[in-house]
Amino acid sequence: MTYDVAIVGGGPAGCAAAITAARAGNRVVLYERTVYPRHRVCGEFMSAESHLVLETLLGPEHDLLASPQKITSARMFADGNCVEFDLDHPAWSITRYDLDLALWRAAMGAGVECANQTVERLVREGDSFCLEVKSSSSISASKVINASGRWSNLRRPIVDNGPRWIGIKAHFSGEHAPSSTDIYIFKGGYCGVQPISPTHLNASAMVRADVATTIDEVFAAHPELWLRSRAWERATDVVSTSPLVHVTPAPVTDGVYNAGDAAAFIDPFVGDGISLALRSGVLAAQCESAEEYAEVYQKRFARAFQTSALARKLIYAPEFVRRVAAFTFRSKSLRNWALRRTRGI
């Protein structure tokens, strides 16, 4: 079997690439090893610059976009301080359970050959690629887009000798949450809380494994979060992922286009993860060469990763540094500057 484009990973980046490539007239195959719908660790925050992309992929009349939960502000709680950011354009809160399924179905509707199979090996053969698929014969493709996330058979090996970071998430009921994404920062991690509907909220944390390995241990790490969470009732199973490792963005590896987390993992607290996945997936499908993709990727997204790394250093800095930063961010112009710097182009 020969395809114009083969895509590995059926999350937002992979589906965005598949839909875009298929609509351009390519013969496309999309592999995803799991079956949707399912919950995944994610803050489920969709920044405003991703809305038009999602509307283009799903169609503006899609049920998922009819009345999404709006997020109008973000608050950071640390060391007894609260820094609030007003969002000029409201974000959307859409669960990955619903989003991934909608994009997967949109890919099938666009004519993509979608398969729940695992790609075990990728070999370059001249100007094309051979993909060995589990329980299936091999296929060849002129172009391969890796959207398989941080860890997969196609991901370049990462050596990290630091502490192990994990992601933990669950949905809860029991509170009519404000239209805000609230970030609770504590020693060794942070937890984001935001409404996903009028009656439910999402709590998603990134934390060092020596600090917490359960959602209750995450809540207990921050006094205000612990008090707030006492009224909640868990509405879904707790899901987790690890390890979470930050690396220098690599949009291309041996001629393979990397999109979403396969290119680089951005700090969840900046709220740009899903947006970067969607936009990098579309870009990977549109670019005619790996060189072009690498160049445009850096121009569009490098600033967001740079600002995210700076913010990460502040969050994990000694307490007196965080207090100075909180005082400095009382300036509205500085808060707006920080938001613009993490949004990309």
What does this 3D model show about the protein?
The chain has 345 residues and is an alpha/beta fold. The chain is 31% helix and 30% strand. It has nine helices and 17 strands. The chain has helices spanning 12-23, 51-58, 96-109, 215-220, 223-229, 273-286, 290-315, 319-328, 332-342; strands at 2-8, 28-31, 45-46, 69-78, 81-93, 113-115, 119-125, 128-133, 139-146, 165-173, 180-186, 189-195, 200-208, 233-234, 239-241, 252-253, 256-258. Strands 3, 4, 5, 10, 11, 12, 13, 14 and 15 form a nine-stranded mixed beta sheet that branches. Strands 1, 2, 6, 7, 8, 9, 16 and 17 form an eight-stranded mixed beta sheet that branches. Helix 6 packs antiparallel against helix 7 (290-315). The longest helix has 26 residues, at 290-315. It starts with a strand and ends with a helix. The model has no long low-confidence stretch (mean pLDDT 89).
Radius of gyration: 20 Å
Largest sheet: 9 strands, mixed
Oligomer: single chain
Could you state the order of secondary-structure elements as H and E? EHEEHEEHEEEEEEEEHHEEEEHHHH
Amount of beta strand? 25-35%
Compact overview of the structure:
The chain is α/β, with parallel strands linked by helices and 345 residues long. Helices cover 31% and strands 30% of the residues.
